[in-house]
Amino acid sequence: MTVSSVARRSSTALAFALVSAGTVFAQAAGPTPPPGPTAAAPAHTSPSTDPADPTDQTSGATDAHQGFTLPSSDKLRFTIDFLAGYGTDRANATLGFERQGRVGYAIFTAFGQLTSRLSYSIAVNPVDEVPPLPACGAPGFFYPNDPRFLYGDSTTIACNPQDGNRRVDPYRGIALDVLEQQGPIREAWIAARLPWGFTVRAGRMPMPIGFDWQEAGSFTAKDAPLIQRIDSQSNFGAMITWAAGGSGRTPPRVAATLAANMGDTNRIWDYDYFYFEDSSLATNSQLTYLGSVRARVFPRLEVRASLQRGDTGSKVERRPSYWASKRNDDATVVSVQLRPTTFSRLVYERAHYIWGPRASSAQMLGVDPSPIRKDGFYATAEAWWPLTAARRIGLSASYERIDRDDSLVRWLADAGLYHVTTNQLDRMTVGRCTSI
Asked: What pTM did the predictor assign?
């Protein structure tokens, strides 16, 4: 980020279709068979089945090492999701990295139905480029993630000029993905289906806030509206969902979710670097709570609403810093999807966020205690035209307007640095072309 780019200018982006594919490797199957004997051969056989025979490897503690075979079953299935893109990002032009081709993600997912009521999913993605890194280096550049700027010249946190200057903040990065992971783990959860339409899920999982970025028509972090990226949260916790009116692949007519998770997902958005500790470690002492509802009011009209209350970071009195403090993390998101025809749809989403230091941290640091309000909306219009029975071509466009304010903007404005002012707007316009 250059000094002149601190006052974030409006941006216009044009994105073309990228590669995104999912392939099921396990054989498709019907309902999970009832427990009982199966005709499949065991993974290992033993020369003897006599319990007294010391060479018998089919009993006792060695059972854990025998493995098992899976006949045609829903207990274990695999998918691969792959996304790659090539394009120009002028935010990285100052260092000569504006034109890049990268793999956005290569997600390997194992999932299945263990019993008639228990299911699971484990997704692993080795590409993890979303979190910012400590950066410093080139004269004439302003790095909000420079440890010396954040914590003073005496800091022991080393900067990373090799990667940190290309993984600065949401406005300057190389990631095509938007979801923060726990190392290579993207999600890993187990769910139990209960009577009367309830399901309980626990583990690391995406949080149901608004429309998922790809569900709403975006390809990558480069063309997704800021609201979609902020709302793409994956976290460790538990949630209970009640759903009614759906069956099989048909989405429910109405669903409601209550979740409690570790929070801390907006640390990278509100410049709460917290000494660059592992971003999957929760720094706050309280859970974040989320309530979400969705309903198909009419066959072509869907409405969603989400309410989140929580915080991020901690007030560390032995190492006080504005950049490692307890922050607000509240969100209210309302979403609407309308399908006027079979080959078109309109998506509108309005978001209201409350960020900035909590009152206790603001008092300790001597900064403005009033919360930072970040409001905005985006709208997306899509249309498709069938080419053949199996192929179609489409166009989509998105427009977003959202408050620029966050903790960095307020700090710079209060300090009178770089002509930064509050109460400004970010705007984004995106065009996309798809072929499926």
From this structure: 0.82
Nearest to 57 by CA among 40, 69, 42: 42
Alpha carbon distances (Å) from 419 to 8, 146, 382, 409: 11, 20, 39, 10
Distance CA 210, CA 293 (A): 10
Q: d(Cα 252, Cα 245) in Å, to the nearest integer?
A: 5
Identify the sign of the CA torsion 213, 219, 222, 223: negative
pLDDT score recorded for residue 63 = 54
Question: Which domains, from first to last, does the chain contain?
Answer: 3-29+73-435 (2.40.160)
Q: What is the 3-state secondary structure (H, E, C) of 162-191?
A: CCHHHCCECCECCCCCCCCCECCEEEEEEE
Amino acid found at 277: E
Residues 406 and 368: beta-carbon distance below 8 Å: no
pLDDT mean for each 10 residues of the chain (436 residues) = 38 38 36 41 40 44 60 85 91 84 95 94 95 83 90 89 86 91 95 95 96 92 95 95 82 94 88 88 89 94 97 88 94 97 95 95 94 97 90 94 96 94 96 86
Residue 134 CB coordination number (10 Å): 23
Residue whose C-alpha is closest to residue 115's, from 193, 40, 43:
193
Encoded amino acid at 257, one letter = T
CB pairs under 8 A, 24+ apart, for 98-107?
100/174, 102/174, 102/176, 103/127, 103/176, 104/18, 104/175, 104/176, 104/177, 104/220, 104/221, 105/81, 105/176, 105/177, 106/80, 106/81, 106/82, 107/79, 107/80, 107/81, 107/82, 107/186
Q: Quick one: which H or E segment has residue 386?
A: strand 372-386
